[in-house]
Specification:
alpha+beta, 4-stranded antiparallel sheet, 5 helices
Amino acid sequence: RNALTHNQAYWLATLTVEDLGREDLRPEPPAADNPRRYDMFSPANFLNYVPWAKALELILDSDPAAIEAHDRRLVERLLEGLDRDRFDISSPEEEERRSALIFVSHRDRGLNREIHRHLERMGVDVSFRRGELRLSPHFYNTDGEIDRVLEALHGSA
């Protein structure tokens, strides 16, 4: 370990799932005696190569413009269906700045962690990032799934 040169820490290797949900996220480099100090981004992961390659083939075999249109439509459906009296959106809403990453927060931010757990129990795949809920509809999602997300959100807290 003393012979190794440390030149950059992979910030995600320093965090836990709980860390990613914190609002005060400030990654710190691992201590010199911590093996995570030498973790690198994208280490060779041969077990994931085949599914990764198949996922890329699926995307490349699809029409990118159709994927983009589908994603935009799903995001629009999510934004239009969200109860704005209860939820705020912190990600850009203007179409030219919008992406498929939608960050949602209950007006009472203290409820977000419980809402996250509720969504997970309902089978909704959502991330908890910096105290907010991150939804990311993509071309493999359906209108019905967006409706189910909205129903689960509105049935929470």
